[in-house]
């Protein structure tokens, strides 16, 4: 059985760090080497046995610090392969059940068309062959030995390894050379955020726990729909009671949906394009690149950052303390810049709407400072927690522009994009389709995300390969013919269960055979 969509809060459940997989709370940055193993199950009994004894890392802090970490997540097909009953599986979200490459409409919305179409992917194209994801993290130099230890004889009896995606953490820079991860939201682990929407209607970097984990109140002050089971279901007694529906057990509690996309980045193509457009002028090149990304290479914001100190954060995070309210036309940071699309930092009401009277005026359409300042949805309902890792060798912008080109410039490099959220549709898919890929974001036209855009024309035939830089008192400078800089190599949706939910999933098949 499943609960009512967005069920109302009764009491907030206690935080259970020992039941939450560690990836939700930690990025495992100290464990800089990693491998994402995409597996299928060839023997259900052997797979359940191996997973039951796997050293899955939890969110509880440990001392001394761990030297390795292991996380496990399942596709909808993986839950079926482990013989989780269909009447339980059907209550996971539709997006998870259908899969990332499940239908052409979803592919179109996500920008997975043209060269990004699932038919061109290296993995995940059929949506059926991948059953689970093992994410292994170690200290430098220890990954090969750790994988050898994990992938023992019993592992080989249980699984087929389809892909081994190696990744690493080498610092804050992403492959194009820009400091990344600054705008990661601060999760409200203590559940102290007010449920009064008028106290939460302006932009904040704090995120309700229920936006990341199922079974907790989200930004609406409600519980996101998730799989709930009757107490009479075998093994259900070990699951936590659903806080909002105490007659049922909560299979979703302490779990999250995980999105994995392999994104190849054309670092050479990006910097060569920027240099051509800038006419080899160094300052103009850096400015154009910063305008397309939305930050300078060192991570500094293009708009004014608040000088008010924020308790508990360092200077690097202080650089994240800004909104775009005072730059409505994009004169400092273009409206279509990558980070402005990914996180427009909007509140529930447009800027200048504090207080009941002003909110009423803005609701009625009065007092707008700029024609487009109320066309972007509130950011707090569409936030995600990112846990991605880069792959391939590092190629600096200077190396990318080297003539003749360096040999390693031909190697593939990019990002294994990983994000967590309680609602795939409202979070990842909304950001991807309504903000990143949309040629109409914030009333723009003919341009999608300058980094992630696939440059494919819309169904109407309208082009999407432009980028505009607004200029004060003059028409915007419109750059045409942007190449595609990022290509999708694979992707899938996973369920990252809590530890009790994992145990329930692993024993499900035993209750289908009366002889066991």
Brief rundown of the structure:
The protein has helices at 44-52, 76-81, 86-89, 94-98, 104-110, 143-150, 153-158, 267-278, 282-293, 315-318, 338-342, 356-363, 397-400, 425-436, 499-507; strands spanning 7-8, 33-41, 68-74, 132-138, 159-168, 186-187, 206-207, 222-223, 228-230, 248-250, 256-265, 385-386, 389-391, 414-421, 467-471, 474-479, 486-496. The chain is α+β, with helices and mostly antiparallel strands.
Q: How is this fold's topology laid out?
A:
Blueprint: E1 7-8, E2 33-41, H1 44-52, E3 68-74, H2 76-81, H3 86-89, H4 94-98, H5 104-110, E4 132-138, H6 143-150, H7 153-158, E5 159-168, E6 186-187, E7 206-207, E8 222-223, E9 228-230, E10 248-250, E11 256-265, H8 267-278, H9 282-293, H10 315-318, H11 338-342, H12 356-363, E12 385-386, E13 389-391, H13 397-400, E14 414-421, H14 425-436, E15 467-471, E16 474-479, E17 486-496, H15 499-507
General description of the model:
The chain is of the alpha+beta class and 516 residues long. It has 15 helices and 17 strands. It has helices spanning 44-52, 76-81, 86-89, 94-98, 104-110, 143-150, 153-158, 267-278, 282-293, 315-318, 338-342, 356-363, 397-400, 425-436, 499-507, and strands at 7-8, 33-41, 68-74, 132-138, 159-168, 186-187, 206-207, 222-223, 228-230, 248-250, 256-265, 385-386, 389-391, 414-421, 467-471, 474-479, 486-496. Strands 11, 12, 13, 14 and 17 form a five-stranded antiparallel β-sheet that branches. It has a four-stranded antiparallel β-sheet with strand order 3-4-2-5. It is globular. The relative contact order is 0.18. Residues 1-5 and 358-368 have low confidence and may be disordered.
